[in-house]
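Re: the request from the purification team.
They wanted to know what the chain is likely to look like in 3D before they choose a buffer screen. I agreed to run a prediction and write the result into the notebook, where they can find it.
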Amino acid sequence: TAEGCSSCPPADAWLQRMDAAQPLPGAELIVLSEHVDYWNHDGWKDPYSSSLVTERQSDYVHALGLQTPYTPQVIVDGATDLHLTDNQQMEQTFQRAAASSKIAVRITSATLDSANPTLLRAHVEVDGNSADDNADIYGVIALSHAESQVLRGENSGKHLTHVAVVQELTKIGKLQKGKTFSRDVEIKLKPGTDRKNIRLIVFAQKSGPGKVLGAALQENIQ
C-alpha cells in the first residue's frame, strides 16, 4: 500500500478488518502492511514506505508471473495474488490457505532491552522436519497502529490510519529441510518507536520469494 495513492485506503480498511476478525474458524490470520515508495514522487513522502518493500513487491511480480506491480496489492501465503473485488476468489484463497499444512514457528521469548530501548531480543524456533524445501526465516517489527495527516498528493487533506505496518524486515537465518532452527535474535527498532505499539512476526518462506511455510506473531512485548 502507499499513502500517496488514492486507491490504497480501501486496502488499509480491509487489512484493519482482517486484523480485527479472523475470517475462518480455527485459522490465525497474520497481516502485514508493506508500504511501497514509488508513490513518493507525487508530492507526499509516505513516512512508512521503504525501497526494500518496493523491491520485495517487484520480486513477487516475477515469482507470480504478473505483468506489472500495482497498488494496493494483497499477497496471501506468498503464493496467491488476491483480488479484493472478487469475494469468491477471496473466500477460496483463505480456505486453501487454512487447509494447507504449515510448519511450526514459535517465538518462545520476546523482550525489549531495558538498557537499550531500540533493541528487541527474541528466541525463535522453527521445526523443519516436515518442510519439503529449504526456507529463509524473517523477523519483522510492525507497528500495531499507525496514522498520519496527508498534506499533499492524491490523498491531500485526509487522515489515514493503518495496522501492522512493517517497520523493520530482517532475514534472521535459513531453515534446512528436515532440521530444526533455534536461535536468539536481535532486531533494532527505529529511534522514537513507541515500545507499546509494536508486534513481532517471524515467518519462514521459500526463496524467490516463494510460499510462506509458517509464521508466528507476538504482541504485548514488554
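For the purification team: Helices lie at 9-20, 51-63, 87-99.
Please add any questions underneath this entry.
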